[in-house]
Design a protein that fits this description.
With about 450 residues, the chain is an alpha+beta fold. It is built from 10 helices and 22 strands. Strand 9 and strand 10 form a beta hairpin.
Length: about 450
């Protein structure tokens, strides 16, 4: 095996690569994970001490230089490992992503219920290690090794961190500075180490141009996600999206503060065309306010329904492929009195200083719905000749200014620039025609 010259964080877990509330309205845009750089996605299926983890990588480098090391609670056997397709995680992401919705004012001269319209919107097997073989000088035991899909996997146990570090280095892994103490903590807890590399022949045979997500199933009383190793060589803060699927209700961190992302605010209609920039700026503001020490709730909902649906809910078949083991085969709908699946979407930005411990989670009985959504309220632009028209126009002035102030508070953007984009008069422009003045002119 060639020496790996450098390790880079590729997954918010511990993935390394060398080299380099119900409402009506219409969904029009979403803030999916693609809006963020250095973003990793992990799906956690959890019930009664059993966990299935699906780990997705956005690694773009040479696959022969890809490696992943994950602390696990027990020896992982071949039948406990699977590969998934990226579209499953993409669908889950699209379904749960924060979004904007839009409403349209009715004719103030003919008041009716508000009418809404939609908008377009390596190969380790060749090392000859042998299962159970002990490297005496290192105190490392190879507990299992096998190939799953395009991955060669070895499961290790170790007596002390120096020995494990030595073994990994001798077998082509370059560990980041500071790995020893963290590895030692996992070893003291008697954890094993799940190591995966890409089998280039298997990858070529399958005709794959990407790395599929790896899935690992195990039993443990501890519901956690190890992220500490991944912070050692990270080039700045990382983004992590956790999608948790449970029977009972919402998942929340038990060792870090949980916060809900800002939601339900009316913002200027032009945000529709700048939604990615808006959501990034808004998330940056919340992270800054909380000193990057909170885990944010972006979505919580029973997957049997949605209101509105940013994407179609996942089917029972798709959920089973993600590891939702309590759904019986043949189940074709999540509606009704059958098994439930509750989705929690969490988002955090983290580094070694702000998140010095692994993430610990707890499953709650809270099934209240929550989603990050932002409202665009379009004014009436048709003809109107009635006593109510003047009052309506005046109310728009107040409404638009409030939207501008809200947007500035959410994003940190300059209020003057926001007003200019909305074509509102600023104090310096008093006397000039505003957008509202021109709105109903032929």
């Amino acid at each position: 095996m060639a020496k790996l010259p450098k390790a880079l964080l590729a997954l918010g877990l511990v993935l390394y690569a060398s080299s380099a509330q119900a409402f009506c309205g219409f969904y029009v845009a979403k803030a999916d994970t693609k809006l963020f750089n250095k973003a990793s996605k992990v799906v956690l299926v959890r019930d009664d001490g059993r966990t299935v983890v699906t780990m997705a990588s956005d690694y773009q480098g040479d696959p022969k230089e890809f490696a992943m090391v994950v602390p696990v609670p027990s020896v992982i056997e071949r039948k406990q490992v699977n590969v998934a397709t990226p579209d499953l995680l993409d669908h889950l992401d699209a379904y749960s992503a924060p979004r904007v919705v839009e409403y349209f004012d009715g004719d103030p001269c003919n008041p009716m219920p508000t009418k809404q319209r939609s908008a377009s919107g390596v190969n380790l097997s060749k090392l000859g290690l042998g299962v159970g073989k002990i490297a005496a000088k290192n105190g490392v035991t190879v507990e299992a090794e096998y190939t799953v899909g395009e991955y060669d996997i070895v499961v290790l146990s170790a007596k002390e961190s120096d020995g494990l570090s030595t073994w990994l280095k001798q077998n082509g892994y370059k560990l980041p500075k500071g790995a020893g103490p963290i590895l030692s903590g996992y070893i003291k807890r008697k954890m094993k180490f799940f190591v995966a590399k890409v089998n280039l022949k298997e990858k070529a045979k399958a005709g794959l141009t990407y790395l599929r997500p790896l899935q690992v199933a195990f039993e443990s009383s501890r519901f956690d996600l190890p992220i500490r190793l991944g912070t050692l060589n990270a080039d700045g803060p990382q983004e992590l999206f956790v999608f948790a699927l449970t029977k009972k209700g919402r998942v929340e961190p038990s060792n870090y503060r949980s916060a809900k992302i800002a939601t339900g605010d009316n913002v200027p209609v032009y945000v529709k065309d700048e939604f990615p920039a808006f959501y990034r700026a808004m998330f940056d503001q919340q992270v800054k306010k909380d000193a990057m020490k909170a885990v944010y709730l972006e979505y919580a909902w029973d997957m049997g329904w949605c209101d509105p649906c940013a994407a179609d809910p996942l089917t029972p078949s798709e959920l089973r492929k993600l590891g939702v083991f309590w759904l019986p085969k043949g189940e074709d709908s999540l509606r009704g009195s059958g098994p439930k699946v509750f989705l929690t979407r969490l988002h955090l930005r983290y580094d070694a200083k702000s998140f010095p411990e692994d993430l610990l989670f707890q499953v709650t009985s809270d099934t209240n719905n929550f989603q990050g959504r932002y409202v665009l309220q379009h004014p009436w632009t048709g003809a109107m000749e009635c006593p109510a028209a003047d009052g309506y126009k005046k109310s728009l002035v107040q409404r638009f200014e409030k939207e501008a102030q809200t947007l500035a508070a959410l994003t940190g953007w300059e209020i003057t620039g926001i007003r200019r984009k909305m074509k509102l008069k600023t104090p310096q422009e008093d006397g000039k025609a505003s957008w509202i003045d021109e709105l109903w002119k032929d």
